[in-house]
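anyone seen this seq b4? input:
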Amino acid sequence: MEPHMHQDSGDDDVEETIEEQEKNDTKKVSKVMIIDNDKVLLLKRHKDSNWKPLYWDFPGGHIKDDETWEDGAIRETKEEIGLTVGNLEEIGTENSKMEVKFFKTDSYSGSPELDKSENEDYIWMNVKDVDIYSRITPNVKKMIKRELGDEDQ
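predicted toks r here
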């Protein structure tokens, strides 16, 4: 059983179609681990997502042709959860079907406001609870453990 999650009663209207969003997207993805003391912010991917629906993931997404990795991470985080992030530190890269860069930061401002067109929910998860969740994307679980886990594990 997963700990209590925040439920948001946000608007489900989508202003821009998926096709319009994807035409300027690259095969590059930036993700951000936002840290607040002993917690990290995770978003539950939308049930209609093409990849890992209903799994917990870091904020982030496809960067656009004219963006740097960091700019894409900042924009996607703002779009998905309404937070402004700064002082991004690159913590890893993965290459499978697309290139994914991971960043971490404890520098953010704003209050979480979930974009319900992309994600179903959000939670500030205690890093010690990472193994309780069965539906965390594998790369996210690995990054949390590597960056914030106990050295003895």
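The chain has a mean pLDDT of 84. The longest strand covers residues 25-36. kinda curious what u guys think
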